[in-house]
Design a protein that fits this description.
The chain has 184 residues and is an alpha+beta fold. The protein has a domain of 114 residues. It is 24% helix and 29% strand. It has four helices and six strands, in the order βαβββαββαα. It has a three-stranded antiparallel beta sheet. It is elongated and about 75 Å long. The protein starts with a strand and ends in an 18-residue tail after the last helix.
Length: 184
């Protein structure tokens, strides 16, 4: 049997308050967040390039008047989001390619993954797509691949192929009406 590829693409959109929560969670995990510290201000720096983009948290440690500013660049923000998602049990494939994007209302983490699976059945013949939109002609049916038909044990002579191409096959119960399509 041949292999088949499945491409997965997911986008996680996190509002800024969740991103700040993720940054604090990462700092606590590594023992760098002062106990009972007060978060005073959050500033987003959206520069021209990735090195200038960052989030700055202004923190007031307990029993101190001076503010401490902590700056987080995109790689640290991405690490905090991944850590947060794993902690909150959001499924995230380890092998996926992860990219981060700053949006006006939050941060997006894009996950891209490709899986190679062994095909469980014979390869399907070419698919005919029929349109259900009013006033739009249906595309012409393509001739079936004789090798795929022979592999599936079906007739392969030219007459049966041209008959099959001339009239679309019903895939549902006795020509069930399609909702929203004009009725003949």
């Amino acid at each position: 049997m041949a292999n088949t590829l499945i491409h997965e693409s997911r986008r996680l959109l996190l509002p800024f308050d969740t991103v700040v929560d993720a940054l604090i969670e990462l700092e606590i995990k590594h023992g760098r967040w002062p106990t009972d510290a007060a978060l005073v201000e959050v500033t987003m720096h959206d520069g021209e390039d990735d090195s200038a983009r960052s989030i700055v948290l202004s923190v007031r440690p307990p029993r101190q008047e001076a503010l401490v500013q902590r700056t987080y660049t995109l790689p640290i923000i991405a690490a905090a989001i991944v850590n947060y998602c794993l902690t909150m049990r959001v499924p995230m494939p380890r092998s996926s390619t992860k990219t981060i994007q700053i949006l006006p209302d939050g941060i997006a983490l894009q996950l891209e993954n490709t899986l190679m699976l062994q095909r469980r059945h014979a390869e399907a013949p070419p698919v005919t797509v029929l349109s259900a939109r009013a006033g739009e002609p249906a595309p012409q049916a393509e001739e079936a691949d004789s090798e795929a038909l022979a592999e599936a044990g079906e007739e392969t002579d030219a007459d049966s192929q041209s008959d099959a191409a001339a009239a679309p096959q019903s895939l549902g119960p006795e020509d069930a009406p399609i909702p929203g399509a004009p009725q003949a």
